[in-house]
Amino acid sequence: MAGRAADSTVLAGARVVLPTGTVEDGRVAVESTRISDSAPEDARVIDLPGHWVVPGFVDMHNHGGGGASFTSGTVDEVLHGIRTHREHGTTTLVASTVTGEMDFLARRAGILSELVEQGDLAGIHFEGPFISPCRKGAHSEDLLRDPDPAEVRKLLDAARGTARMFTLATELPGGIDSVRLLAEHGVIAAIGHTDATYEQTVEAIDAGATVATHLFNAMPPLAHREPGPIAALLEDDRITVELINDGTHLHPAILELAYHHKGAGRVALITDAMDAAGFGDGLYDLGPLAVSVTDGVARLVEGGSIAGSTLTLDTAFRRAVTIDRIPVEDVVRSISANPARLLGVDDRVGSLEPGKDADLVVLDEDFVLAGVMRKGEWIIEPKTA
C-alpha cells in the first residue's frame, strides 16, 4: 500500500532503463532506501511484465502545484505542492520563485532553504527579478531590476547555500558580473527572459552561464540576420537547454530541432509549473499577477501572456515518447540524469544504479504512470495481477 517502506523489494519482468541502455525482462533490487546489487532470497518480488521502470524524475524549474505556490504558500502548502508532483513521478524538485521585492524574496529564500535542508526540496531557483522588461512574460514589470551582483549576493546569502540557479537577462547592466559571481559560488547562471543579441549571449556563456531557461520562450525568435540568443544557446555544448513539453509552449518540430542540435545529453525537460498543476482550471495568483487557467493553459488575466504551465513530468515524458517520438533512453536522460547532473545531485539520484536513492517510476506499456517510489517508499504502489 502507499507509504509502505520497501525493506527488501525486487521489481522484476519490466523493461528497465539503465545508463547503459534498456534491459528487457530486467530487475531492480531495493534495500531500505537505496538501490542494491542484489536482494535476499526472501525479498518481496513485484512482477511488472509489460511495464517500464525508469529513474525518478528531476524537475529543476517548478513554481508550484496542487493549488500551492512555492513563491507565496505556507510551509504546509509548499509541502502539499511537492507531494502533488511526487505523485506524478517527480522525486527530486527545485522550488522556483517569481519576481518580487528583494526583501520578500530574501525572506522566502529563508523559508524554502529549511525545506531543502530537511530533504524535501533539492534547492531554490530564482526566476526574476533580474530579467528583461522586453521579455518579462508573467512577471511584474514594476518589480524588475538590473542584475546587480550585490543584490544577487543578498539572495545567495539568504538561501544559506541552497540556491541552485538564477535566471538572468545577462545583457542588462551587471549581468556578466552576476554570471561570474554565480559561477564562482557553484550556482547555475541561466540565460532567460532575455532580449540579448547573439554576441551578448556568447559573452554570457564565456563568463560561465550553463543553462537556457525554457529555450525559445521569453526570448527573441531565431532570425536569419539576427540569430539572437537561440542560435548561441543551441550551438554551444556548454549549455543545457530547458524545454517545456506541454504542447502549448513548443511545437513538436521545435522540440525535435532542440534535440537534434543539442543531443539528448544537453536537454532538460522541465514543467515551469504553477499552482494549477495537478489541481485544475480556475483563477490563481502568480506572484502579484492574476492568472486564468482554462483547459489546462495558464495565461495572465491582463495581457494574456502564457503564465507558466500546468504540466507534470509524467505527461512531459509520455508526450516526448508517444507524440514527439524521442527514444525512451533519451527522454530518461533529459528528465532525470541531466537535471540531476546540473544540480550536483547525480551521485544520489538521476539513474538506476546500486548505491543511489531508490527513486523510480513505473510506467505501463502506454507510458502512463503506474507507480512511484522515493527513497524506498512507495508514493504510488503499482497494481499487479
TrEMBL record:
Binding of Zn(2+), residues: E127, H193, H214
This protein's UniProt keywords: Carbohydrate metabolism, Hydrolase, Metal-binding
Swiss-Prot/TrEMBL catalytic activity: N-acetyl-D-glucosamine 6-phosphate + H2O = D-glucosamine 6-phosphate + acetate
Enzyme class: hydrolase
Pfam families associated with the record: Amidohydro_1
Domain Amidohydrolase-related residue range list: 52-378
Record-annotated active site: D272 (proton donor/acceptor)
Cofactor(s) needed by this chain: a divalent metal cation
Pathway: Amino-sugar metabolism; N-acetylneuraminate degradation; D-fructose 6-phosphate from N-acetylneuraminate: step 4/5
GO biological process: N-acetylglucosamine catabolic process
Keyword Iron among record annotations: no
UniProt keyword Metal-binding, yes or no: yes
Superkingdom of the source species: Bacteria
E.C. no: 3.5.1.25
InterPro entries reported in the protein's UniProt record: Amidohydro-rel, GlcNAc_6-P_deAcase, Metal-dep_hydrolase_composite, Metal_Hydrolase
Gene Ontology MF annotations: metal ion binding; N-acetylglucosamine-6-phosphate deacetylase activity
Positions that bind substrate: A138, N217, A218, R225, H249, I306, A307, G308
Annotated cofactor note: Binds 1 divalent metal cation per subunit.
Family statement: Belongs to the metallo-dependent hydrolases superfamily. NagA family.
NCBIfam families linked to this entry: nagA (TIGR00221)
Protein name as annotated: N-acetylglucosamine-6-phosphate deacetylase
Species: Streptomyces arboris
